[in-house]
Specification:
The complex is a heterodimer of chains A (570) and B (148).
Chain A lengths: L1 H23 L3 H4 L9 H8 L4 H7 L4 H6 L2 E6 L6 E6 L4 E5 L4 E3 L7 H33 L5 H14 L4 H5 L2 H11 L3 H17 L17 H11 L8 H7 L6 H14 L26 H14 L8 H6 L18 H25 L6 H11 L6 H7 L13 H15 L3 H14 L16 H4 L9 H14 L11 H57 L5 H12 L1
Antiparallel strand pairs in A: 1-2, 2-3, 3-4
Chain B lengths: L16 H20 L12 H20 L5 H9 L5 H7 L54
Helix pairs in contact in B: 1-2
The chains are: A mainly alpha (570), B mainly alpha (148).
Chain lengths: 570, 148
């Protein structure tokens, strides 16, 4: 697919450049030595043995195809060198022919050369005039169409287009009137039509031979037009004194060695070793020429790199991966072919997918979990209104991603909505107070005077109380609260583990203190009980003592009366 | 009569489902296409082959993710089995020696065949004739012997 396009393009370019160079290339013909046999090997033949162009080509099998098709197209008298005429062929080549001696030369003999040069100049002038005429016509038409005010614009446009057509510099400087005059003057030239036709048919094909844009070898023919072409590539008027240089630059016959050399150079450009392309020579390559050996591990690792680079998901089925035939498929990468067969690739893929999945799992575990309620609450704060019941609200916003989040159950969503709507009906002072209480419960580490309103802690955002107030009021309150807070605690740089450890220590200490207190209480209790018992015992003793004393006290009425009295009381 | 359950009250799938959701969706789309495909020009039993093939592929995908690559956790795997994304019975056979590549359960159901034998696709390729191409009747399998 690529190749024909490229070729066409290059030939087109060459055709264009040829067009330009006709203007420039005045002395270049000498320099590129149309008659210099030494620079052009094939030239020797034709120059020394005068033949017709067709005869010459039939000698060389390589050019058969072209010879068969090429025909003389037009002939031009060279004024001043009467027997000689210049013949142009269908393929745009040209040669000189002597009508008297019936001799033909691809390479213009030096005595005829000035005439040919003259002819070139004349031809160029004709072409230019022709182009001018065309342009002037266009210009005229435009002037008729457009108003006077637009004239300036159109002129600029035309100038641009002119540039695009690669007209010569002198032409661009010419003004309109001159061109129109020319247009009138040159209309009669009959030959001009001829020349134009010749140029038109000839030029695109002239670009077909010679070197294409990549410098690869195609046809090497020694014709005048090729010499011209070469001069044009230089893109500057060449002086006649650079003969030696011309010999270097002239078209060169390519042999097998040259091609081999070129191939090697290209191989080097691509960073290949000789063994990696082309066929093997008889002696074999020198050591290491076959490219660096890639070990199996390296190959597998390269394949893994490939998978990494294409950001393939490890959860993709292998069949799907290799069935992909789009441009972005991994199969279009060079690294895909490094592994020898499909089995090796599948193994590498399995291993990679397993490692990658493990890695993903690890990363996700590390990542902070985001409360699914936060986006939903933000959504509620924006959209919820007491005018809608939950089913209505749900129907209205069923397409929103917040309403379809799988992390949050529908039940929870409903509950949050209903609660939120109920809270919206509460007096504002209550809602404010609730918000303040919520703010106060958040630890200083999460909420302090360096917290911005955009990065409020999750604890706050995931709470229903945080969205009960309209957003501007809420922001005001939160900002006010934040401004009253002290800066973040110094230990803020502690890691979570350290913090947990500290918490643990604190908890243990509290536990110990609790235990101590409990023990104290127990001891107190015991002491109190002991005291109580003591008191009881003492009282008992006193009682007995009193009884004894009473018993000892015998009154005047005698022992009997006493005993009886006691018995009576008992 | 059992309660009619709507999709509304469904519990969220376990973590990690998001990763494989797209692939499973593709499988279910393929399955739908296979279900709705025209039967014209097909043999009677040939109709069901794609169904079996897609079931096999999907089960294999989940089996690979859980047992080979360990890319999904048990919770998700159980959930997938429970929700019919993979055929637990087929997977149970894959774990047994000699059944590692089993195509479908019908192919090892000896009681359903005339000679109390397994399906032709269970026969190792070596024991078949040279160049014998088979497509089993039950699922279109071209051979699922472990040695092949």
């Amino acid at each position: 697919m690529e190749l024909p396009n490229k070729r066409q393009k290059s030939s087109h370019e060459q055709a264009e450049s040829e067009f330009v160079s006709l203007d420039i290339d005045e002395g270049g013909a000498d320099k590129y030595g149309y008659g210099e046999e030494s620079s052009i090997p094939q030239g020797d033949i034709s120059a020394s043995t005068p033949r017709g162009p067709r005869a010459h080509f039939q000698r060389d099998a390589r050019f058969d195809r072209r010879n068969a098709q090429d025909r003389p197209k037009s002939k031009h008298v060279l004024p001043g060198h009467e027997p000689w005429i210049l013949v142009k062929t269908k393929f745009g080549r040209r040669f000189v022919h002597n009508t008297a001696t019936k001799e033909s030369f691809w390479h213009v003999p030096s005595d005829v050369w000035p005439a040919v040069k003259e002819f070139d100049a004349w031809e160029k002038a004709q072409t230019e005039k022709e182009a001018n005429a065309k342009w002037a016509e266009e210009e005229l038409k435009k002037m008729r169409d457009s108003s006077k005010a637009e004239e300036v614009n159109s002129k600029a446009d035309a100038e641009e287009r002119r540039g695009g057509r690669r007209r010569s510099e002198s032409l661009q400087r010419e003004d309109e009137e001159a061109m129109m005059a020319e247009l009138a003057a040159e209309a009669e030239h009959a030959e001009e039509q001829d020349v134009k036709q010749v140029l038109k048919t000839v030029e695109p094909e002239a670009g077909e031979f010679g070197y294409d844009s990549e410098g690869s070898f195609e046809y090497v023919e020694v014709t005048d037009s090729e010499g011209e072409e070469h001069g044009e590539k230089e893109d500057q008027p060449v002086e006649a004194d650079g003969d030696a240089e011309a010999e270097d630059e002239g078209p060169v016959e390519f042999g097998e060695d040259d091609i081999a050399y070129q191939l090697a150079a290209m191989g080097e450009d691509y960073g290949l070793d000789p063994g990696e392309y082309g066929e093997e020579p008889e002696e074999g390559w020198e050591e290491g020429a076959e490219g660096l050996a890639i070990s199996d591990d390296d190959a597998a690792n390269l394949f893994r790199d490939l998978l990494d680079d294409y950001r393939v998901s490890p959860f993709t089925p292998w069949d799907k991966l290799i069935a992909d035939e789009s441009e972005t498929s991994i199969m279009h990468d060079d690294r895909y072919t490094i592994l020898p067969n499909m089995k090796a690739r599948k193994d590498a893929w399995d291993q990679w997918a397993r490692d990658k999945a493990a890695q993903l799992k690890e990363e996700r575990a590390k990542m902070e979990k985001k409360d699914p309620r936060i986006p939903y609450l933000a959504f509620l704060a924006e959209k919820a209104t007491p005018k809608l019941y939950w089913p209505e609200f749900k129907r209205k916003y069923k397409r929103e991603p917040e309403m379809n989040d799988r992390k949050l159950a529908d039940k929870d969503r409903e509950k949050l909505y209903r609660d939120h709507i109920t809270r919206l009906k509460l007096p504002e002072s209550t809602r404010k107070a609730d918000l303040m209480t919520l703010l106060k419960t958040i630890p200083l580490r999460d909420l302090n005077n360096s917290t911005s309103l955009d990065s409020l802690p999750q604890q706050l955002l995931s709470h229903l109380h945080s969205i009960s107030l309209p957003s501007n009021t809420r922001h005001k309150i939160i900002a006010q609260h934040i401004s009253t807070l002290p800066p973040p605690p110094e230990a803020g740089d502690m890691s979570d583990e350290q913090r947990m450890e500290e918490d643990k220590k604190r908890a243990e200490k509290r536990k110990r203190e609790d235990a101590l207190a409990a023990r104290q209480r127990q001891v107190d209790e015991e002491r109190r009980r002991a005291e109580k018992e003591e008191r009881f015992a003492r009282r008992g003793l006193l009682e007995e003592e009193r009884e004894l004393r009473r018993a000892m006290e015998v009154g005047n009425r005698g022992l009997r009366a006493q005993l009886a009295g006691e018995g009576g009381t008992m | 009569m059992p309660a009619i359950r709507s999709a509304r009250g469904k519990k969220a799938p376990p973590d990690g489902f998001d990763d494989i959701e797209d692939t499973l969706l593709e499988f279910s789309n393929k399955m739908k296409d296979a279900e709705n495909a025209s039967h014209e020009g097909k043999k009677k039993h040939e109709m069901q082959w794609p169904i079996f093939q897609i079931t096999h592929q999907r089960s294999r995908y989940i089996y690979d993710l859980y047992y080979e690559k360990e890319a999904i956790d048990k919770k998700l795997y159980d959930w997938l089995l429970k929700n019919g994304y993979a055929d637990a019975n087929l997977i149970a056979k894959w774990k047994k020696q000699g059944y590692e590549k089993l195509c479908c359960l019908r192919c090892i159901q000896t009681k359903e065949t005339n000679f109390n034998s397994t399906c032709i696709c269970r026969v190792p390729r070596q024991q078949l004739k040279e160049d014998q191409e088979i497509e089993c009747v039950s699922c279109g399998c071209r051979g699922c012997s472990s040695g092949d």
